[in-house]
Amino acid sequence: MTGKKKSAQASVEAMYRVFTVPEAPESTLSRIDQNISRNLAGFLQEHIVAVERDLSEVEKNFSDYAIPEKPVFVSEQAQFLLDKLVANSVHTASPAFIGHMTSALPYFMLPLSKIMIALNQNLVKTETSKAFTPMERQVLGMIHRLVYEEDGAFYRKWMHNPRYALGAMCSGGTIANLTALWVARNRAFPAEGNFRGLHQEGLFRALKYYGYEGAAIVVSRRGHYSLRKAADVLGLGRESLVPVDTDDENRIQTDALRDKCLELQRQKIKVMAICGVAGTTETGNVDPLDGMADIAREFGAHFHVDAAWGGPTLFSRTHKHLLRGIEKADSVTFDAHKQLYVPMGVGLVVFKDPSLASAVEHHAQYIIRKGSRDLGSTTLEGSRPGMSMLIHSGLKILAREGYEILIDQGIDKAKTFAGMIEDEPDFELVTRPELNILTYRYCPENVQKALAMADPLQAEKLNTCLNRITKFIQKTQRERGKAFVSRTRLEPSRYYHFPCIVFRVVLANPLTTREILTDILAEQRELSTDEGIQDEMSILHQMADAVLKQGQLGARQA
Description:
Layout: H1 12-20, H2 28-38, H3 40-47, H4 55-59, H5 74-85, H6 109-119, H7 132-148, H8 152-158, E1 167-170, H9 173-188, H10 198-201, H11 203-210, E2 214-220, H12 225-233, E3 241-244, H13 254-266, E4 269-277, H14 289-298, E5 302-306, E6 331-335, E7 347-351, H15 388-397, H16 399-423, E8 427-431, E9 437-442, H17 445-453, H18 456-480, E10 486-490, E11 500-506, H19 514-527, H20 534-557
Parallel strand pairs: 2-3, 2-4, 4-5, 5-6
Antiparallel strand pairs: 1-7, 6-7, 8-9, 9-11, 10-11
């Protein structure tokens, strides 16, 4: 007797069952749930393939464009996800995955996330969120106090006041930055006389009424690309995001910032906002926020700090001084899915003045009515999940002391790794860590000596060759799957601002050890001998030897 494969059927009873009846304990889905709950790290190591597959191969698993007519069993879909999705995902929790701003999560985030998903609250309105609304207000109050350190009376007055908001919860730093600049734009052109405000009449009428030729957002050249998106979305145009040069430490030059603001003023362009960066994406540096705040006040500009990465440094008594001046900001962005260690994706922006959010307030009769406690009245996004529950849990379970340990450990680890790189004659530290991000590259000792005496043309040729080698090593190491560092492009002043490709490392995962870092350098050194790059290495050494020989000849003649 041959068994016929049982197929799933769509029926009223089946639809009722998938909404009400849990999977049996021995089902694929239940086994996945049990394995993840018992040992998340083990589950990931077992199911995520270490060796990278070409994305075009993976795409074949997702090539059907028609929605299936007939249903499949949950167990069948669960197995598909294991085989085709999980097995081709990135193991971001790996302690050797040190290339991006994604880390391992505290184990408790998984079961607590189930509570959030099961409740399925919508934070746009209290009718669909109830207790989640005051919890979100509390989380915003906690982060506000971390930044601005107001007294208890301030938070008792404002935290749960339905007519005000200490901030806005968002799906990430991009929306948080956009929200802050949305507020800045509307405040820059308020209602006056017969003008009803930019939020009512638009940017064209606002500029005409106030006598400006345009409006600008000023930020360092290391500002995050989300600020350019914001300038686009807010109707200013991408060219209205005005970059300012940085110093050798990748921090904005305050003299150049003030000069740029004066230049814009002469051109009748309103300096709508000045943005400081607390933890640049590429190098982890912090702008001189104190000085920037003074300049923003001088020009009547909204001062926003993008602290999506570096904000949690405020937990550290040892390192919080690096963010001195952040308390003067009108608004500050945090990305909770970075160094607050919660799942993707949640960010937030806090406002120094509780009345600032009213600049973007919206209401509707069927929802977020005027005077209600609904959080959706001052957020760009409408329907949102209750991610504040996970931030709240992190702040309670890890607490200030726990976050301080994580921040201090990450910064110390970055300094340790920088020292390890400097001790290796064939590696070059390109940017020294200020927080827990650094950049470096493989650069043979004789090449470093040649670069030190090279003229601009010689340095360009050497760095062009090094760029190809760095790219090869980074890409090959990623494909091997044992470890991952990212790469970026910097313009070091010591190399005449020529674009140099470098390895970028983010050390936020508490599970990353010195031994892992040693292995990463060893693998990169080994890859430098790979036959696929030997022609390039030969050319590099020949050019370096020629520069050194020329230098020695010049020294003898002198």
